[in-house]
Amino acid sequence: MNEFIAQSAYFGVSLSLLAFFIGTLIKKRFKSAIFNPLLITIIIVIAVLMCFKIDYDSYYNGAKYLSYLLTPATVSLAVPLYQQWQLLKSNALAIMLGIISGMITSLVCVLAFAIILGLDHKDYVTLLPKSITTAIGMGVSEELGGYVAITVAAIVITGILGNVIAETVLKVFKINEPIAKGIAIGSASHAMGTAKAMEIGEIEGAMSSLSIVVSGLLTVVGATVFSYIY
Amino acid sequence: MKYIMQFMIILIISFVGELLYYLVPLPIPASIYGIVILFLLLEFKVIKLEQVKDTASFLIEIMPLMFVPAAVGLMDSYDILSRNLLSYILIIVVSTIAVMAASGLITQLLIRKRGESGE
Fold first, then answer.
1. Based on the number of CB atoms within 10 Å of its own CB, is A194 exposed (0-12), middle (13-18) or buried (19 or more)?
2. What SS3 state is found at B28?
């Protein structure tokens, strides 16, 4: 049976879709931020794989077709960005300063913890690009001599976390301007957070999309500068 | 036909993004080039919004699903993370909240300040 699943092109996709469907139902039923559809989906899929002793590669054999769509989907974020361009231009300064302060906060946080916890240089540069989109983050980590696999894991965990806690954090800090909400989510948790921003609203989604691009590019420079500090 | 056309445009832009990633020696991925290209094409009216809108909305709607494979991949990352697991988790949790709060509050403050002075 495991041999069959390892070859199956549809097992991974079907399991992911089914788990997501269940996640959405649970979210609808309970309406609490803890019941995050993405998080529920991940837990269900991992639980199923572990219960039936199916290894990740067998799952990925089919599920990779979902990842395949990620680049076209990210490209599609240009559409909401275009639709909100006027709003964006008229608030350009606030938006840019917001994104820059997010980037600096991220780098300073990692630096502070590296000093406090006594991490070595390699661990430090591994975590510097953790708030930005995976593909840029991997490149930065590699460039600075970090553990690329750990960077990827840290980026994914950051994304899931951002997606799950976004609504709560925004409420606690009384951030309720749609533009500011989008910038906050995109700066902190890249595309996985942006998926949540899209659910909240069009303006939030567009601003979060912009943050992925700007924050991603600025961090290439910012992380390089910070890599010399510690 | 409509969807074939829309998919075609988005996939060709993704391909051009890949090509740029291959040619330009910077750690900028295909998707980032792609967003910028599609945005410019829309802004300069080379492509009309209707020519990509439905497919783009569909892809964005199902986007959360696309993160599932990478996230499930964390089940294999435990070994590499375990060495410093607590430090990693602490840094990730604190900095994600801090970044969200800082960028959101500063953006909001500046928007409101401008709103007051502009009126």
1. buried
2. coil
| CA–CA separation, B118 and B40 (whole Å) | 30
How many angstroms away from the CA of B25 is the closest CA of chain A? 11
pLDDT digit string, tens, across residues B44-82: 999 999 999 999 999 998 988 998 998 898 888 888 888
DSSP A176: -
Domain regions of chain B by residue span: 1-66, 80-119
Nearest partner of A102 among A182, A36, A168, A177, judged by Cα:
A182
DSSP character at residue A54: -
CB proximity A181 to B under 8 Å: yes
Chain A partners within 8 Å of B89 (Cβ): 157
Q: Which of A 69-88 lie inside 8 A of B, CB atoms?
A: 69-83, 85
